[in-house]
Amino acid sequence: MAISRIIARVTQYISEAVMRIFGPTDDAYPSIGVQPFTGDPYKEGTADNW
What secondary structure, in 3-state letters, does the chain show? Predict the structure, then answer.
């Protein structure tokens, strides 16, 4: 009895992990696309020297 319960729990644990890895994503990121760069380009002569 105890062995069958342990096997059932291990099987459930592994199957939940597989479903999480290969299932659809649940990310809540907005679909806004690529954003343009609005910063200043790097100029090598203007960097602070430490």
Answer: CHHHHHHHHHHHHHHHHHHHHHCCCCCCCCCCCCCCCCCCCCCHHHCCCC
Scan for tokens 């203007």, then name that residue: 46
The CA angle 13-5-1, to the nearest 5 degrees, is: 170
Integer Cα distance of 40 and 46 in angstroms: 12
How far is Cα 25 from Cα 23, in angstroms, rounded to an integer?
Answer: 6
Of residues 46 and 7, the one with the higher pLDDT is: 7
Q: Could you tell me the CA-to-CA distances from 36 to 31, 39, 43 in Å, in that order? A: 15, 9, 19
